[in-house]
């Protein structure tokens, strides 16, 4: 294959779906949040579609109003991914664990254990925590940003060193000779940073992919630097092709600066498809999802985005000609120009909102072809290497994507027809890595 | 039922068995350490025998010589227990997590997630860490003992408070009314101790047993105090009926002092059965297991235990009459009197060692009846409320115990014939508890 193909991740967090109202939609088990059977079925559906990986974003705090919405996180990422590992064969299993709130030995052990348990399918999204509530749950105040990133470098380096603390050939298992391991090939790491330290070794042998794949999310120069040095995949939230392209270009340049091939780092753009038989049907689906959210508040927000004073009384009306003429998209909100485009099409404000114009990812409500067209356009424009799919409602939305969108992408040569191998590293085409990347040895933040 | 019956836990750590040589025995998969299929099969075998729970002891460090022995711990307790949860229906799932090396929010979240995922079968063994290597893996030096126990109290109290941070009726899931939870019933814990703190709430609703069951292990007055206040089960390592009785009496008295019913705390005595068709066959099984251990060193140790100078040249000979006459069991080693008894029976030193006389639990190598007799004797003497079984080799040893010993115990009325309910709390007859025990509110170490 010489034509590049896109990579797909699916975000499965709470068992319901990416939209706040997902928990109460028809066909959704309202207890899915704690029911591993439900979560495993979602992973199986994604695997049927040859999706490269499941991704669980995570912040260890309550971040939503539980009166109307489900938590946005899994009960625990490790428990959910281990359950999924038991019910699937191929799909990658990736979760966030904070570099601010966890010790490197704990992260190294838990993700490597998942990696061997899943036969080489684990990935770790290494991100500092920006939530004061999450820090307070751990009895901490958030450290300054620079310190958080200094610690992040130390944590990733110590984690990767611990992962490599058994040489690949160390686990001999020589039954006749009575030799379990070759301990000359198992060594402490003895790394001491300014914030964290570990002696090692980790008591876990290499997995089928050696060690888990590192991901990164979150922007800014500091985040880019972490991604450039350690990550094979990056979760990004561009709202336009231009934003995506700019991020991807910066990422590739940063990877090159530290001596890596830029193709080693893949950018996944967050994307929310709502697949239905028509755009109208997709909007109706999303309107039903919106029943639990505070539309009064959203319509006010929509007004601010467009430089207009809007109220709930206009929810079922479109913008007037005068309003359209007076509208000034907020320069501080990258979603505003698209929002004005949708408003100009004459939709009622309720339908404008149902287009997801103020959602945290770009939204395409429409047919499978609409969704595939959007993805093709972004991918071919170089806005991303793939997508991280936030499906509105998992119970039927994953199946709809897998059964309707995936075949279109495959027909167009944009998406693989089967997994390339057995491990997450195989699925991503990520280069072999074991232990710390030797190219970064000179740049190490934690030293022995 | 008015006759008390014993409780049984089975220690499943590394996938091979409790004996260092288990990994290389016939029928054992030498890769079992990382293979969840193997570990799940062991839990299924125990569940077939109606064993109340699986217990994973844990120290996050390499504690053995990997040249000849497998690690004594699981790759990760949470990954292994979650895998077991997916492959079993009833058996309890308990693991150690250090109160010294972990933050209470992390413990609370991970064990509660396992608890909801397993439908109310999780337990947490709350112990401070005494391993300098484990502390060094976390970049720490071990704190003084008093401080470790002060922190242990704070951690358990905050964990239990977090577990109770949703009232039982908080998770309404009212689909028609659009109400996910009643947030008037979900509150922060806002606990601040001297060592740890957490704001909360935990974003996890109650499980079928409310919250995980707390266990304790490790002795001394400090350990007893933790057990008395919080534990429903205690892992102890008595080497004699007298030791067991003394520990159990002290434990029950300590529980009473803090206002609990002493029957709320069950003492599990560590025990290593090696079941075979005869005592000779059991000894041969254990001799084969001993092939990887350094018998020269053990025979020297055996000599020290008996006040004799012994060497490997005598391995296949029994003690001489002169040696038996000169033997003086070491007063500092509670295993010494039993060792001398075995030696007096005329076994070769290799067979004396095969009796497990210097193992870390009492060992009975023999028939199912021998094993059942020992258990009955200890149980009826009040040395324990049950046993924590360290089976020599899991692959066939669990089946042997379940198929041969369990029926004998059942026939004698000493062990239940089926699980009493669906949750670990049901299996243990542990009283209902949710959040912190209100009887301990006045004694709280961590305050809001």
From TrEMBL, chains A, B:
Which Pfam families does UniProt cross-reference here? Answer: Bac_luciferase (PF00296)
Query: By its UniProt entry, which InterPro entries does this protein fall under?
Result: Diverse_substr_monoxygenases, Luciferase-like_dom, Luciferase-like_sf, NTA_MOA
Residue positions binding FMN: 58, 96, 149
What are the Luciferase-like domain coordinates in residue numbering?
Answer: 31-382
Molecular functions (GO terms): monooxygenase activity; oxidoreductase activity, acting on paired donors, with incorporation or reduction of molecular oxygen
Q: Does the keyword Oxidoreductase apply?
A: yes
Q: Which UniProt keywords apply?
A: Flavoprotein, FMN, Monooxygenase, Oxidoreductase
Q: Does the keyword Oxidoreductase apply?
A: yes
Domain of life, per UniProt, equals Bacteria
User: What family is this?
Assistant: Belongs to the NtaA/SnaA/DszA monooxygenase family.
Protein name as annotated: FMN-dependent oxidoreductase, nitrilotriacetate monooxygenase family
Q: Which organism is it from?
A: Geodermatophilus aquaeductus
């Amino acid at each position: 294959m010489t034509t590049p193909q896109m990579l797909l991740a699916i975000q499965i967090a709470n068992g319901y779906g990416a939209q706040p109202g997902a928990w109460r939609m028809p066909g959704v088990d309202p207890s899915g949040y704690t029911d591993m059977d439900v979560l495993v079925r979602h992973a199986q559906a994604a695997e049927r579609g040859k999706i490269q990986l499941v991704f669980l974003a995570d912040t260890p705090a309550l971040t939503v109003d539980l009166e109307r919405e489900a938590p946005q996180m899994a009960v625990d990422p490790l428990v959910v991914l281990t359950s999924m590992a038991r019910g699937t064969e191929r799909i990658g299993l990736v979760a966030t664990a904070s570099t601010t709130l966890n010790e490197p030995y704990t992260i190294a052990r838990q993700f490597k254990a998942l990696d061997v348990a899943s036969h080489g399918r684990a990935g770790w999204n290494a991100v500092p925590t920006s939530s004061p509530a999450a820090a307070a749950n751990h009895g901490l105040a958030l450290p300054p940003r620079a310190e958080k990133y200094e610690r992040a470098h130390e944590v990733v380096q110590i984690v990767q060193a611990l992962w490599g603390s058994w040489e690949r050939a160390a686990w001999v298992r020589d039954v006749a000779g009575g030799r379990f391991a070759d301990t000359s090939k198992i060594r402490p790491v003895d790394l001491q940073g300014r914030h964290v330290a570990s002696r090692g070794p980790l008591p876990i042998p290499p997995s089928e992919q050696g060690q888990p794949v590192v991901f990164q999310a979150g922007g800014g120069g500091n985040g880019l630097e972490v991604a450039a040095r350690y990550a094979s995949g990056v979760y990004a939230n561009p709202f336009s092709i231009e934003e995506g392209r700019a991020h991807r270009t910066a990422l590739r340049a940063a990877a090159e600066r530290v001596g890596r091939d830029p193709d080693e780092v893949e950018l996944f753009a967050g994307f929310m498809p709502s697949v239905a038989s028509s755009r109208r049907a997709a909007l109706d689906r999303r309107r039903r999802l919106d029943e639990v959210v505070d539309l009064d508040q959203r319509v006010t927000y929509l007004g601010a985005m467009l430089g207009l004073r809007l109220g709930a009384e206009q929810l079922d009306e479109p913008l007037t000609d005068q309003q359209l003429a007076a509208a000034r998209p907020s320069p501080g909100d990258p979603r505003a120009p698209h929002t004005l485009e949708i408003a100009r099409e004459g939709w009622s404000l309720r339908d404008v909102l149902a287009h997801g114009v103020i959602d945290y990812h770009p939204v395409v409500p429409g047919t499978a072809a609409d969704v595939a067209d959007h993805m093709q356009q972004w991918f071919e424009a170089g806005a991303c290497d793939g997508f991280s799919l936030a499906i509105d409602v998992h119970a039927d939305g994953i199946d709809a994507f897998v059964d309707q969108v995936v075949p279109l992408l495959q027909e167009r040569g944009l998406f693989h027809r089967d997994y390339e191998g057995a491990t997450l590293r195989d699925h991503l085409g990520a280069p072999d890595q074991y232990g710390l990347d030797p190219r970064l040895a000179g740049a190490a933040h934690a030293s022995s």
